[in-house]
Amino acid sequence: MAVQTVTSTTESAGSAERSGSAAPSVDLGPAAALSCRECGHRVPLGPVFACEECFGPLEIAYDFSAYDTEELRRRIEAGPANIWRYAPLLPVPADVATKPNINPGWTKLVQADNLARELGVTGGLYVKDDSGNPTHSFKDRVVAQALEAARAFGFTTLSCSSTGNLAGAVGAAAARAGLRSCVFIPHDLEQGKVVMAAVYGGELVGIEGNYDDVNRFCSELIGDPAGEGWGFVNVNLRPYYAEGSKTLAYEICEQLGWRLPDQIVVPIASGSQLTKIDKGLRELIELGLVEDRPYKIFGAQAEGCSPVSTAYKAGHDVVRPQKPKTIAKSLAIGNPADGPYVLDIARRTGGAVEDVTDEQVVEAIRLLARIEGIFAETAGGVTVGVTKKLIENGDLDPSLTTVVLNTGDGLKTLDAVADTGLTATIRPNLDSFREAGLSS
Ligand SMILES: *Cc1c(COP(=O)(O)O)cnc(C)c1O
Ligand SMILES: [Zn+2]
After folding, report:
1. Fold category of 108-136+245-417 in CATH
2. Cβ atoms 181, 170 nearer than 8 A
3. If you write DSSP's letter for every residue of 98-135 in order, what string do you get?
4. Ligand 1 atom closest to Cα of 165?
5. Is the entire prediction scored with pTM above 0.70?
6. What's the fold here for domain 139-241?
7. Cβ–Cβ under 8 Å, residues 56 and 38
8. Tell me, what DSSP letter sits at residue 333?
């Protein structure tokens, strides 16, 4: 494996497990070790993603014991207006804020009073609008983390399997950092996503197949000499990548005045974002940065790719893969890696997982644009549509503070609303204007 030792190890909770092992170690702030989500087995920080004992997924374990709550709050509030204000809670090197990175985050939390009125929400409704990130989707948050891990482990090529947004985020991050990028997407994505991924000058490869085929191919490439020195942000760097989603939880709470929302509606592709939003909220409670009270997490899918909501409604613990067929291509993962964890979280917090049809996705995109001035991509149509449905079903309590995520920009999925256009075409004179019935 192409791994380099960058700095000597920190004195952290992981060091006991490290001794006796020849594995190289890196200093990634409060990140102490990788821990298996299934069996708890710990290994040193490195570019590994599966447990050697049980093949379960690895995630970052931290040692936050040195933090004083008020001191930490002051440090965060004095930090930059991007995700690095939360560097003390992320697996990144100490000098992260000074290195070239795309520096995403600190996107708007829009108080959506018009949408609240439309949906009958009285407890406060907010849209966390992640279309404001550098490449116009939430994926910049996770890629920014993976980039730092790639640097720490000495990878020279940044790669990924992508449903579209991730390819653009990787291309931009690699460009900024001066690394090579070579990314893989299904060959039939929206033009907006293809152009957005290609424009940063990296290599962009279309694969004849769906996302699950692309992902399987990337797993093969990692195990082959052809992939030597490649950091796949969502495969061998996945534990680091995934932590970027925690910043959505941190920002929402800080922007609400260090308060937990009562309910959050989150889109599901692989399910990683949803599970890390939950992790982020639990960390804020543990650290004393927010009051410890219940919150509910709701998952949102498109009916044409709804393996998790199908399992949720059937009361199953396992997720049966589906073949995706939906306009919500950024969420079109038929075999979601974090599906079972999403089911756990929805059930544990008292949330739910729901899905909407493509027609409802389009309706929701139009609604959000028309009454809030926010143009969401199809994934945002999914969350807004699901929110409406959850309220109608009685699953989501309209008297509670609710945050709905919009994770991408409508400009990337113009096809979804392509039948929208000119109200009229007129000659450049007043008679023509009056004839068109546009006078006040
Ligand atoms: C990738 C993506 C998500 C969520 O992805 P997960 O794999 O569930 O973390 C949500 N919205 C958009 C627009 C995305 O591109
Ligand atoms: Zn394990």
Report:
1. Rossmann fold (3.40.50)
2. yes
3. GS--------EEEE-HHHHHHHT--S-EEEEEGGGSTT
4. 15
5. yes
6. Rossmann fold (3.40.50)
7. yes
8. -
Closest to 397 measured CA to CA, from 125, 113, 95, 136:
125
d(CA 374, CA 85): 26
Torsion of CA 196, 248, 82, 72, to 10 degrees: -160
381 lines ligand 1 (CB under 6 A): no
Alpha helices in 256-377 (DSSP H): 272-286, 307-314, 339-349, 358-372
Residue in the structure block whose two tokens are 């729901």: 354
CA of 36 to the centre of ligand 2 (A): 5
pLDDT in tens, the chain (440 residues): 333 333 333 333 333 333 333 445 688 889 999 999 999 999 999 999 999 999 999 999 999 999 999 999 999 999 999 999 999 999 998 888 888 999 999 999 999 999 999 999 999 999 999 999 999 999 999 999 999 999 999 999 999 999 889 999 999 999 999 999 999 999 988 888 899 999 999 999 999 999 989 999 999 999 899 999 999 999 999 999 999 999 999 999 999 999 999 999 999 999 999 999 999 999 999 999 999 999 999 999 999 999 999 999 999 999 999 999 999 999 999 999 999 999 999 999 999 999 999 999 999 999 999 999 999 999 999 999 999 999 999 999 999 999 999 999 999 999 999 988 899 999 999 999 999 998 88
Sign of the torsion angle spanned by Cα atoms 246, 116, 407, 387: positive
Handedness of CA 161, 142, 170, 150 (dihedral sign): negative
Token representation of residue 217:
């191919």
**Shortest-distance Cα residue to atom 5 of ligand 1:** 269
- CATH 3.40.50.1100 positions along the chain are 108-136+245-417, 139-241
Q: Which residues surround ligand 2, an ion (CB under 5 A)?
A: 36, 38-39, 41, 51, 53-54, 56
- 171: enclosing H helix or E strand: helix 165-177
Q: Give, for ligand 1, the residue of 273, 361, 411 to mutate: max count of ligand atoms closer than 8 Å to Cβ.
A: 273
From the CA of 51, the nearest ligand is: 2
CB 165 less than 6 A from any atom of ligand 1: yes
- Ligand 1 in reach of 413 Cβ (< 6 A): no
Among 127, 135, 165, 266, the mutation site with the greatest number of ligand 1 atoms within 8 A of its Cβ is: 165
User: Ligand 1 centroid vs 408 CA: distance in angstroms?
Assistant: 9
